[in-house]
Amino acid sequence: MTFAWLSVLLGSVVWLPGARSLQNGLALTPPMGWLHWERFLCETNCERNPKNCISERLFMDMADQMVSEGWLDAGYRYLCIDDCWLDRERDENNRLQADPVRFPGGIKKLADYVHSRGLLLGIYQDVGTKTCEGFPGSQGYYDLDAQTFAEWEVDLLKFDGCNYGTLDQLEDGYRQMSVALNRTGRKIVFSCEWPLYERGIKKINYTEVAEYCNSWRNFGDISDSWGSVKAVMTLSSAVQEELVPVAGPGSWNDPDMLVIGNFGLSWNQQVTQMALWAIMAAPLMMSNDLRDISAESKALLQDKHVISINQDPLGAQGYRVFKADNFEVWEKPLIKGSLAVSVTNFYEIGSPRNFLLSLSLLWKKRVCRNSCFITRLLPSYHKYGHLNDNSLLSLWINPSGTILLRMD
Ligand SMILES: *[C@@H]1O[C@H](CO)[C@@H](O)[C@H](O)[C@H]1NC(C)=O
Ligand SMILES: *[C@@H]1O[C@H](CO)[C@@H](O)[C@H](O)[C@H]1NC(C)=O
């Protein structure tokens, strides 16, 4: 299938995949891994909370879990540090340094450990004068900090936007850091928050964002709640004409972390987050405690059928095609003319509700023209078999739950 043909099919959502994406050859499918923020925040008191404080111990524990518990095999490869790893000051040569008490071995030693386990290491900095939690930011030191990360053999940089100064400084800082990372010669995935800080203030030039970043956040931080997951879906679909066209291999919209396996989401809501993050071609960055996670959440996060929707090599971001009567239908074109479809029930009361999915509703009526094979991936795997364009698929969907299908 050619991209031009696809963009005709999509009509209003014109999809021109990664046409001018950042040319570092990285993140050709959405990055997968683990990021500390949502679950571990900025806990720096290791005396009071030794197991959960932001320290090399936490990351070494997670690295061990990622390898021994099947996460790496499932595709979760990037182990990512968020804010609060830094010392309060740069060193005498203006170089960044990790907090010496919590990271006694320094970041290079941690990177060596992570690499020895077959994983990759992500780190965090900020385009402004200070990080969001008040640690030294990169403004004025873009080249030096990029070199430092390359010397430490870091593989991904999440670059926040707090304390950026003016919008010109924000944009310029992101451009400069992207160029600085390239100059190091090391392959480092560049995860930006540029659009998040511009949204509502000026029109975001996504063409340019995609030229400098491998992924970018558009909305505020996710939290461990159904309200937050719903808000991401609502915000994403509201501006899908803006977001969907720019996604593709090397360039991804980032709706923020998977909070599956924590405290806030019911089973059905966890299914909804997993299904929709797959449909949205989102980076799959879990933020949870891999040392303490239920078998159900683990199986959901490691579901290879769902992950293959997210990691589909076509790299198309899915979008909402239907919303009525508290149901939403989203679809995501897959390679070789296949399609992933989700149906979510937002009626948060009562029993499972019936939805009759008309196959002709989907993909501008191009799907299942003769006949196609329908498989349900979530909430549990089931083969429906062959259906044709005139079929109606009868689905029963739990309140705040989702059914995820693939059509081949
Ligand atoms: C730097 O950019 C050039 C040109 O876009 C690209 O060919 C090269 O692979 C990049 N190098 C790194 C390390 O990202
Ligand atoms: C957006 O950025 C692209 C690439 O840098 C540039 O060619 C284009 O003119 C910009 N568009 C606007 C409206 O500024």
Automatic annotation (TrEMBL):
It catalyses: a globoside Gb3Cer (d18:1(4E)) + H2O = a beta-D-Gal-(1->4)-beta-D-Glc-(1<->1)-Cer(d18:1(4E)) + D-galactose; Hydrolysis of terminal, non-reducing alpha-D-galactose residues in alpha-D-galactosides, including galactose oligosaccharides, galactomannans and galactolipids; a globoside Gb3Cer + H2O = a beta-D-galactosyl-(1->4)-beta-D-glucosyl-(1<->1)-ceramide + D-galactose. The keyword Signal applies. Its EC number is 3.2.1.-. It comes from the Eukaryota. The keyword Signal applies. Residues 1-21 form the signal peptide. Belongs to the glycosyl hydrolase 27 family. PANTHER family: ALPHA-GALACTOSIDASE A (PTHR11452:SF14), ALPHA-GALACTOSIDASE/ALPHA-N-ACETYLGALACTOSAMINIDASE (PTHR11452). This is Alpha-galactosidase. It comes from Xenopus laevis. The gene is gla.S.
